[in-house]
């Protein structure tokens, strides 16, 4: 008797990956589409900033500080007479790039240590977990403030490393938790019994199975990192002038709001729009992956 | 959501319940609470170590930085002696912790010869202001968020739920200062309902204080409500999916009784956790909102201290923020433990 | 089908209570609705017990709770009718259905531990339905509940109600839930696999209690299970379901003695297998006086000695908590013993996994209970079977692929499976792939940990046959851990009976399975339901005599 005769369920032909993605995209809700279009636009602006911006990043183009909106200076000028529209565009590049680098740092360190902790358990896990618990007891903005206080003048690299490492604790927590679930599964034990070494188990058995929650977390973490850096810059303790950064620009133009001028809301809104867009995409992705689980 | 330990909460409690029941010397609730308390203290201890050693890692000479590059070695040495920088690190740590326990955070670097400023004197009025703002926010936000969250969970996938979902998702993704400036633009500048700057001092009467704090409190409320509501909704939905809720429905129990009698007694732990998590989150929001509205709270103090590199103040503020966070989670833990039937009624 | 009742006058206990006609139910997954129940007719008379039997995905549970006019979230009625005592349950208002539930139709769920609210005392949950429906006042309800506890042979019927769900055992909880269902003296009770989560020795007690109370109150019942031997003890009439369709319906005795459909026969396929035992003095593995514990806790294994002859199967039998899986962990080196040793091919095995070399690891392979978790969902069959070939034998390229295909053919699959992911093949095929993975190492001993218990009967039979064939072909020894006696008969040469960390008995199959038995073996063997409608009655009578 062959297996096919009793298990008549013939598996349907496998669809290619790109087909699957296209199918999912077609079913994506409006909010997710909105999110994807916005993120694409931001990335485009960030990549081609020098070609889109009419003036240079820190070029003083007018003698008049806080000039009003005009055809010459679309969003007016700032306190030094620099073109705000151009600075908004350059800021996309700076703010997004730095947040991305910091998030990457967080995932590389936190993710790796998290998986190793879940796999090895014992004293390594205890040590890492206790330390992370302690660091997480200090809100990340407060921790970042404290660490940045020890630098004379925080450089971009300082900010990336500090924020990246602080957020690595959150990534550690999540990665450890999801990896722990995977480590408990029989196929990991089977690999161990086979005599596989730890790096192979991590890369081949665990990592592929924890990707969906980690991808989601990357989106959310990116938003948090972005907001933390913007907040720091807004407080004057993050990105330093003359670099164009949305958080910093809010701080520089903040006084205008008391005159009913909405200019400070532009860089703030730029941040809000991006994070909202990313959250919409993540929300859809979450719904997608959890929906599959419900369907069983 | 178990913020103090790496082990998923339910699992841990279950193991604890069985193990403690067998030993039977101490009531499992008391035992678990003591365990949590110890864990909280341990975390606080590590936090203090982390905070202290971070400041230790400071590159360059501290006193020189404060006194300026032109300071003579003698002045530097005298200053170091005055603020205790001449002793070895572990001695200073022990002294620092010893003093902190007694409420003495040492002298601010803003001190000069003959003009000593105590960190605790700087912090106390600011901390009161921040606690006032946070309590005001919590008073509005907690009932609002829990109520909305439960409603959204009960009417899942209804138009109400969908709208609330989109709105809150939008709100939580926005930076606090964006929300703050929008509110300021409309409510303070355009409508002139509230003052745009929240300047208060020790003598401001209560009602005046509430009026001046309206905008910062409103901003914080908007941010917190969104978070808290989403988490409440998720917790309740999770609860309503339990087999014993289905069983109650199949027993023909009325809808209101299913919610009140079957779901609610088991909902305390998740809801309390949501509240604790969000109140802790409030702390971060406070820093930004205080900066926007120039409110004289501890967040502003810390930002200023970071700017002027006044390390004793930075240390003290960080420690206070961390302690608040740990305390909130500890309270949440203790409430969840004491409403857990497995621990309340050991075998 | 409506005429079935004509053929069985002896079972006609009363008027028609429940009638389903052409019932259709659909379920949603990933935004697509697909049928779960595909047009089923069902008739139930007062006082009659109907067994619904089928394997996973048959729709039996969905059909069972549909009798209460209820569908789980994500499901919907799409056709047909359900009439309960003259009332159309699909058309009825929510309020009308609510009044019916609990009072006239009650439900007993599979997992009592999850179905009781952890926050309330058992007595309060037991009487909730009657007090809420206003049938009795609290005081008489409590007295009645205590009476029911007693009838269900719960210990301390007057005080057990004061306990919380986590304070009583699984078997007792299941009986409390039966009492809860019985409080309003409903016309109909739905039993949804009430004993599936229990050990066999506990199952017997629960089955006896349920049967006696249903008879005492002449309650109609729908008894849902996947175990034909269990339902044979409980039901007057049995319906066999498969993929949401009715396969066969007949009175119990008729169905057991003369099943009409091939599929029905396959439901007890494993019971048809019996391996002739053949002794072998040459031991490949011997476990000598092993103690083991997790951490410093209580001993899980206590002075365990087991001998596995070369090329034969030793079945390790026991209930949950007997230590049989821990024994496997000791052999594989995952849990080094605290005392004693394991001798493999004449040499002592290093106790810990990390001290065993590749060659040693290759010789002992393991197959798990659940093929879903034993296969990495991201690895294609090529990788799953290919890795041990690469790892132990250094194969690569065309040679590797050729060998993978050979192995696939050995497990009765073919080349076309090589690129598939585990999610793209059935449960039985997955277990075959697990076998191929173990086989790829060319082992001398394979530890099989409940390898068939997650599978449907007919697939179990195929897997067991495959394992036997491979044993004959390659002279592999099996250490076969199971709780199922039918499986033991099918595959074992020798049997080891374990209870609470100790070996109760070890010997050749025929010797262990025939009297005289040690007390625990007797209890275990006699508790396994047989394909005989009178089995439970006879067993209870026998035990009663023994106790007097």
UniProtKB/TrEMBL annotation, chain A:
The chain crosses the membrane at residues 30-53, 96-119, 131-150, 156-172, 219-239, 265-286. PROSITE patterns: ABC_TM1. It is a multi-pass membrane protein. One of its GO terms (cellular component) is plasma membrane. GO terms for biological process: transmembrane transport. CDD domains: TM_PBP2. InterPro entries: BP-dependent_transpt_permease, MetI-like, MetI-like_sf, OppC_N. Keywords: Cell membrane, Membrane, Transmembrane, Transmembrane helix, Transport. Residues 92-286 form the ABC transmembrane type-1 domain. The keyword Transmembrane helix applies. Belongs to the binding-protein-dependent transport system permease family. This is Peptide/nickel transport system permease protein. It comes from Dongia mobilis. The lineage of its organism: Bacteria, Pseudomonadati, Pseudomonadota, Alphaproteobacteria, Rhodospirillales.
Automatic annotation (TrEMBL), chain B:
Keywords: Cell membrane, Membrane, Transmembrane, Transmembrane helix, Transport. It comes from the Bacteria. It is found in: Cell membrane. Its main location: membrane. It holds the Pfam family BPD_transp_1. One of its GO terms (biological process) is transmembrane transport. This is Peptide/nickel transport system permease protein.
UniProtKB/TrEMBL annotation, chain C:
The lineage of its organism: Bacteria, Pseudomonadati, Pseudomonadota, Alphaproteobacteria, Rhodospirillales. GO terms for cellular component: plasma membrane. Keywords: ATP-binding, Cell membrane, Membrane, Nucleotide-binding, Transport. CDD domains: ABC_NikE_OppD_transporters. This is Peptide/nickel transport system ATP-binding protein. PANTHER family: DIPEPTIDE TRANSPORT ATP-BINDING PROTEIN DPPD, OLIGOPEPTIDE TRANSPORT ATP-BINDING PROTEIN APPD. It is a peripheral membrane protein. Pfam families: ABC_tran, oligo_HPY. PROSITE patterns: ABC_TRANSPORTER_1 (PS00211), ABC_TRANSPORTER_2 (PS50893). One of its GO terms (biological process) is peptide transport. Belongs to the ABC transporter superfamily. Residues 20-268, 285-525 form the ABC transporter domain.
């Amino acid at each position: 008797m062959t297996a096919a005769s009793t298990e008549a369920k013939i598996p349907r032909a496998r669809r290619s990956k790109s087909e699957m993605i296209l199918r999912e995209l077609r079913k994506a809700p409006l909010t997710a589409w909105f999110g994807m279009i916005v993120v694409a636009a931001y990335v485009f602006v960030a990549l081609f900033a020098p070609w889109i911006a009419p003036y240079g990043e820190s070029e003083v183009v007018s003698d008049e500080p806080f000039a009003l909106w005009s055809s010459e200076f679309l969003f007016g000028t700032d306190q030094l007479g620099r073109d705000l529209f151009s600075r908004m565009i350059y800021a996309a590049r700076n703010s997004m790039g730095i947040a991305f680098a910091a998030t990457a740092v967080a995932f590389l360190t936190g993710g790796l240590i998290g998986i190793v902790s879940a796999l090895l358990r014992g004293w390594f896990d205890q040590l890492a977990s206790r330390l992370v618990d302690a660091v997480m007891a200090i809100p990340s903005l407060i921790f970042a403030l404290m660490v940045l206080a020890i630098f004379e003048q925080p450089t971009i690299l300082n900010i990336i490393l500090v924020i990246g490492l602080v957020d690595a604790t959150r990534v550690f927590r999540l990665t450890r938790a999801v990896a722990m679930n995977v480590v408990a599964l029989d196929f990991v034990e089977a690999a161990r019994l086979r005599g596989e070494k730890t790096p192979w188990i991590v890369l081949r058995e665990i990592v592929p199975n924890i990707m969906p929650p980690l991808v989601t977390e990357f989106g959310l973490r990116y938003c948090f990192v972005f907001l933390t850096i913007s907040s720091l810059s807004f407080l004057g303790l993050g990105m330093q002038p003359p670099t164009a950064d949305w958080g910093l620009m809010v701080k520089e133009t903040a006084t205008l709001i008391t005159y009913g001028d909405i200019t400070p809301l532009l860089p703030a809104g730029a941040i809000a729009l991006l994070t909202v867009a990313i959250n919409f995409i993540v929300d859809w992705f979450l719904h997608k992956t959890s929906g599959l689980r419900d369907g069983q | 959501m178990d913020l103090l330990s790496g082990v998923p909460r339910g699992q841990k409690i279950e193991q604890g319940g069985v193990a403690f029941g067998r030993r039977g010397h101490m009531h499992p609730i008391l035992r678990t609470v003591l365990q949590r308390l110890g864990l909280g203290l341990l975390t606080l201890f590590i936090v203090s170590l982390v905070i202290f050693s971070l400041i230790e890692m400071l590159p360059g000479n501290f006193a020189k930085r404060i006194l300026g590059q032109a300071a003579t070695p003698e002045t530097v040495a005298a200053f170091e002696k005055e603020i205790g920088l001449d002793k070895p690190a572990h001695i200073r740590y022990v002294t620092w912790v010893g003093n902190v326990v007694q409420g003495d955070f040492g002298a601010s670097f803003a001190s000069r010869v003959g003009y000593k400023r105590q960190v605790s004197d700087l912090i106390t009025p600011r901390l009161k202001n921040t606690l006032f703002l946070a309590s005001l926010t919590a008073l509005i936000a907690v009932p609002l968020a829990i109520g909305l969250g439960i409603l959204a969970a009960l009417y899942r996938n209804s138009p109400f739920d969908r709208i609330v979902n989109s709105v809150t998702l939008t709100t939580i993704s926005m930076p606090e200062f964006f929300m703050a400036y929008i509110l300021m633009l409309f409510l303070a500048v355009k409508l002139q309902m509230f003052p745009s700057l929240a300047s208060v001092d020790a003598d401001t009467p209560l009602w005046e204080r509430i009026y001046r704090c309206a905008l910062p409190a409103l901003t914080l409320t908007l941010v917190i409500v969104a978070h808290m509501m989403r988490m409440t909704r998720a917790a309740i939905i999770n609860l309503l999916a339990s087999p014993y809720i289905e069983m109650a429905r199949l027993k023909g129990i009325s809808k209101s009784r299913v919610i009140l009698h079957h779901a609610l007694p088991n909902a305390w732990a998740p809801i309390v956790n949501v509240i604790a998590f969000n109140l802790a989150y409030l702390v971060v929001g406070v820093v930004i909102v205080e900066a926007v509205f120039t409110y004289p709270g501890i967040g502003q103090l810390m930002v200023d201290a970071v700017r002027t590199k006044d390390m004793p103040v930075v240390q003290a503020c960080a420690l206070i923020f961390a302690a608040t966070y740990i305390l909130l989670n500890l309270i949440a833990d203790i409430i969840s433990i004491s409403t857990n039937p497995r621990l309340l009624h050991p075998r | 089908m409506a005429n079935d009742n004509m053929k069985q006058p002896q079972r006609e206990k009363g008027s028609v209570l429940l009638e389903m006609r052409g019932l259709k139910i659909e379920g949603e997954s990933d935004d697509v609705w697909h049928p779960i129940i595909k047009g089923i007719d069902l008739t139930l008379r007062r006082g009659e017990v109907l067994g619904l039997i089928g394997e996973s995905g048959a729709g039996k549970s969905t059909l069972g709770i549909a009798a209460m006019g209820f569908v789980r979230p994500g499901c919907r009625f799409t056709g047909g009718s359900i009439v309960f005592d003259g009332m159309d349950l699909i058309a009825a208002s929510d309020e009308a259905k609510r009044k019916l539930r609990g009072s006239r139709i009650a439900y007993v769920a599979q997992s009592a531990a999850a179905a009781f609210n952890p926050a309330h005392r058992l007595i309060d949950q037991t009487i909730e339905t009657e007090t809420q429906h206003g049938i009795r006042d609290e005081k008489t309800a409590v007295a009645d509940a205590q009476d029911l506890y007693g009838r269900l042979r719960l210990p301390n019927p007057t005080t057990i109600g004061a306990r919380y769900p986590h304070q009583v055992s699984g078997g007792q909880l299941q009986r409390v839930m039966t009492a809860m269902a019985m409080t309003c003296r409903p016309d109909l009770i739905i039993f949804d696999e009430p004993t599936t989560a229990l050990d066999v020795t506990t199952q017997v007690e629960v089955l006896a209690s349920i049967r006696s109370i249903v008879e005492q109150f002449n309650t109609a019942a729908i008894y849902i299970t996947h175990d034909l031997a269990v339902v044979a003890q409980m039901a007057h009439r049995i319906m066999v379901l498969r993929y949401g369709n009715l396969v066969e319906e007949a009175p119990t005795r008729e169905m057991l003695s003369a099943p009409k459909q091939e599929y029905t026969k396959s439901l007890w396929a494993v019971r048809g297998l019996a391996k002739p035992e053949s002794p072998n003095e040459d031991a490949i593995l011997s476990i000598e006086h092993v103690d083991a514990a997790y951490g410093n806790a209580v001993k899980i294994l206590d002075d365990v000695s087991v001998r596995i002859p070369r090329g034969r199967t030793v079945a390790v039998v026991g209930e949950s908590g007997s230590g049989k899986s821990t024994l496997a962990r000791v052999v594989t080196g995952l849990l080094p013993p605290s005392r004693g040793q394991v001798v493999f091919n004449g040499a002592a095995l290093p106790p810990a996994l990390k001290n065993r070399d590749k060659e040693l690891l290759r010789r002992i392979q393991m197959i798990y209970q659940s093929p879903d978790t034993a296969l990495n969902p991201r690895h294609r069959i090529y990788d799953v079977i290919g890795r041990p070939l690469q790892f132990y034998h250094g194969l690569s390229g065309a040679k590797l692929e050729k060998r993978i295909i050979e192995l696939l053919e050995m497990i009765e699959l073919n080349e076309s499976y090589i690129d598939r992911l585990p999610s793209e093949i059935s449960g039985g095929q997955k277990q075959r792939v697990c076998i191929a993975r173990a086989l790829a190492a060319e082992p001398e001993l394979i530890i099989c940990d409940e390898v068939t218990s997650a599978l449907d009967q007919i697939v179990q039979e195929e897997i067991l046959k495959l394992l036997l064939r491979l044993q004959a072909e390659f002279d592999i020894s099996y250490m076969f851990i199971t709780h199922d006696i039918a499986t033991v008969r099918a595959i074992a040469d020798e049997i080891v009976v374990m209870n609470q960390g100790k070996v109760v008995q070890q010997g050749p199959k025929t010797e262990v399975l025939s009297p005289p038995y040690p007390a625990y073996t007797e209890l275990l063997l006699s508790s396994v339901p047989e394909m005989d409608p009178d089995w439970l009655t006879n067993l209870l009578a026998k035990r009663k005599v023994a106790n007097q």
